[in-house]
Specification:
Radius of gyration: 34 Å
Structural class: alpha+beta
Largest sheet: 12 strands, mixed
Helix content: 10-25%
Number of strands: 17
Number of helices: 10
Strand content: 15-25%
Order of helices and strands: HHHHEEEEEEEHHEEEEHEHEEEHEEH
């Protein structure tokens, strides 16, 4: 009959080496360890427990600055935007690192603010990277700022990848920015205090797009318009709890601009903001800016400057679309390498066909010969899609090239062979002819990428 498990356990405890083949030295080592178990090494844990309160105290001291007082601290690292839409260093490099504002002092002089550039990203895209146009130029600033604002504020330039919807705002120094363009054309910008992410500065502009959004917000922030908004079909269901509210005037732009403070929210944060609305041929728009903070100091000079700049500009300072001014001379045309760089941004992997190699379409069009590029070339045994790129000196010459292309591919042939019809695209001073290889799957799969790339060169037309 088999022994019970506890019998084996008892036997092992009494004679652990019975019926086993162990050396005497090994038996002495095991017995010594069993009879004299080592003391637990608690020293490291004791030190760790003693250090925990000290570390916690250091963290509390490090973050105790809190509140809206963080506006007074210039970041040590200079002009930086670490948001998801941080500027490309090459693009931001076209701007100076500071922007001058006039001083209200009778002695004159200027106040320099750090300049941050932020690329606005569409909230709904087609899966391709945005074409990066140059950062737009800035006009001379006319809004006066006191000297102490140089340490409390930064100027933030937001520009769209298409050269449109560019604007300038004042914001707390060192706050991180993230900009977005909505699918309907509206746009906005949010700043976050890196030391206290609950503190934010948010700006929105409906940009004549969502009429229901604009009308509803007009009724919300201008209670005297609530009845009108309801008549338009957009009633105000939950009015805002204003702590204070003041119209800037009785007529004109001031009669459509309001300053307000909301009651503290459940987290004790205050909200100081301003709103402006406009009626035009396209309907209605509303622009809003709101600072959520914990300071409880509505007379703070930095806050007054941020909201004052908004009121003076009827929102953000809208910049003209990137392009030529009437008095400017024509710029140098874009080069082929400019287009190739943007096409690669769109995901095309290009390989140039050398002058001595065979070209798919080596035809002169309106006095220009093409540069030919292979798409996703895998080696001599592959027959990939191709691009014939014509680079002209002007938009007008490019249009002539397109007409010449039409004549060339539609001419009568008598060789009995099947004709190959490409897709042709024109943008700026470029004409791109897209030829699909015999094994292409899905057919002309880079049409959208080519259109998107060329669209970025139309701003000079």
């Amino acid at each position: 009959m088999a022994r019970l498990p506890h019998d084996w356990e008892k036997r092992l405890q009494e004679s652990p080496f019975a019926d086993r083949h162990f050396t005497e030295e090994l038996q002495r080592n095991v017995n010594g360890r069993l009879n004299n178990p080592p003391q637990r090494k608690l020293r490291r844990w004791t030190y760790a427990a003693a250090m925990l309160p000290l570390v916690a105290l250091m963290l509390v001291i490090g973050y105790s600055s809190g509140g809206f007082s963080s506006l007074t601290d210039r970041p040590d690292h200079g002009v930086v935007s670490n948001g998801e839409n941080s500027p490309d260093p090459g693009e931001a490099g076209t701007q100076t690192s500071a922007l001058s504002f006039p001083s209200p002092d009778i002695s004159g002089g200027e106040v320099q603010l750090p300049l941050v550039t932020v690329l606005a990203v569409p909230s709904v895209d087609d899966g391709y990277p945005a074409v990066k146009n140059p950062v737009p130029s800035l006009p001379d600033m006319t809004y006066p700022l006191s000297a102490e604002m140089a340490d409390q504020l930064q100027a933030t330039l937001v520009y769209g990848a298409d050269g449109k919807n560019s604007y300038l705002l004042l914001s707390p120094a060192g706050w991180e920015a993230s900009a977005v363009i909505g699918a309907n054309g509206s746009y906005g910008l949010t700043f976050t205090d890196p030391a206290d992410p609950a503190q934010t500065l948010a700006y929105t502009d409906t940009n004549w797009s969502c009429q229901g959004c604009a009308i509803g917000d007009i009724g919300l922030y201008f209670p005297e318009k609530a009845g009108w908004a309801e008549d338009q079909g957009f009633p105000v269901y939950v009015p805002l709890d204003f702590k204070s509210r003041e119209m800037l005037g009785t007529g004109g732009d001031d009669g459509r601009t309001v300053r307000y403070t909301l009651q503290p929210d459940k987290d004790g944060l205050l909200a100081d903001g301003a709103a402006y609305y406009e009626e035009g041929n396209w309907g209605y728009l509303i622009r809003r800016i709101e600072l959520r903070h914990a300071s409880g100091i509505p007379e703070n000079a930095a806050l007054e400057s941020i909201l004052g700049f908004f009121a003076a500009s009827n929102g953000a300072l809208i910049l003209p679309e990137a392009g030529l001014q009437s008095e400017e001379a024509d710029p140098d045309p874009y080069s082929t390498s400019d287009l190739l760089s943007v096409l690669e941004q769109q995901g095309l992997r290009l390989t140039s066909v050398g002058p001595g190699d065979e070209h798919m379409f080596n035809k002169e069009l309106a006095g220009v010969w093409p540069d030919e590029e292979l798409i996703d070339y895998e080696g001599p045994l592959s027959i990939p899609d191709r691009l014939s790129i014509y680079t002209y000196d002007s938009v007008e010459a490019c249009a002539e090239g397109l007409e010449a292309l039409k004549l060339e591919i539609n001419r009568t042939t008598y060789d009995g062979g099947a004709r190959i019809y490409p897709h042709a695209f024109r943008g700026g001073n470029f004409l791109v002819v897209y030829w699909m290889g015999p094994g292409g799957e899905g057919g002309f799969k880079y049409d959208k990428a080519i259109k998107t790339a060329l669209a970025g060169f139309n701003s000079r037309e």
